[in-house]
Amino acid sequence: MSLFQAIVLAIVQGLTEFLPVSSSAHLILIPKLLHWPDQGLAFDVALHAGTLIAVVVYFFRDWVELTLAGLGFNFPRGASNERVRHNRRMFWYLVAATIPGAIVGFLFEKKIEEYLRDPRPIAMAMIGVALLMWYAEYVSKLERGMDRLRFSDAMTIGVAQSTALFPGVSRSGITITTGLFRGMTREAAARFSFLLSTPLIAGAAAKELPGLIKMRHTGQLDLPISTLAISIAVSAIVGYLVIAFFLRYLQTRTLKIFIYYRILFGIVILLLAFLPMGSAR
Question: pTM of this prediction?
Fold first, then answer.
């Protein structure tokens, strides 16, 4: 893989990890469309380390407040009792909501990686979740912020997140959609989605990092350290900018453009998958 290809894929990861369009689908399909060699799961994990850096840096203060409050500290100093109670409750909501995704990842991640990298199911997932997003936009009351989040909301969103292991679903897409179904505002649903994604992205990166290092030492990952470092940095920078943009975007706009994009992208992938079959007749 050239440095140019690595940077393109890093930009793709940074753009698509937090937008509701499925980063895994794009990392699988774009190299196929461009006739590039499969970069492999190890490189994908490195790119996820970049977007992990992005979400941790962006929400660093939030995570410090939530974690300290969740562990029983009255933090930040001078904060009202109501704010500390909210942070404590939110921390444990996030802990509980992470469990379904962790269980599904532990049990099925290898099977999913092995059998679901085919373009056709990915395209169907892109279109199917787009239709769910459209219906959620249509029925959502958009009246509840993070301060009105309930335990049942958090767990429902957490269960939805567990389906994001399937390429084409999109972690942010399915969790934001579920938040809309629960009556949350778009911005609140996205903010909770990004906070909820942090532990699972961190867990996945920690789980795969030893294998990545081993592959690097044994020569199975034939990439210079400089290329890996640049790719991670590009993924982190683009991911940070996307988070900032998307949260502002959702304050005043809908998910329609992402719905249209998912449907169009899914249709194009299906056409490309089936056209060779049609020409062979």
Answer: 0.90
pLDDT at position 278 is: 41
Residue 14, pLDDT score: 95
What is the 3-state secondary structure of the chain? CCHHHHHHHHHHHHHHCCCCCCHHHHHHHHHHHCCCCCCHHHHHHHHHHHHHHHHHHHCHHHHHHHHHHHCCCCCCCCCCHHHHHHHHHHHHHHHHHHHHHHHHHHHHHHHHHHHCCCHHHHHHHHHHHHHHHHHHHHHCCCCECHHHCCHHHHHHHHHHHHHHHCCCCCHHHHHHHHHHHCCECHHHHHHHHHHHHHHHHHHHHHHHHHHHHHHHHHCCCCCCHHHHHHHHHHHHHHHHHHHHHHHHHCCCCCCHHHHHHHHHHHHHHHHHHHHHHHHHC
Distances in Å between the Cα of 51 and the Cα atoms of 87, 239, 247, 280 are 24, 5, 16, 42
Return phi, psi of residue 181, to 5°: -60, -30
End-to-end distance of the chain based on CA atoms, in angstroms?
Answer: 35
Q: Is the peptide bond before 76 cis (omega within 30 degrees of 0)?
A: yes
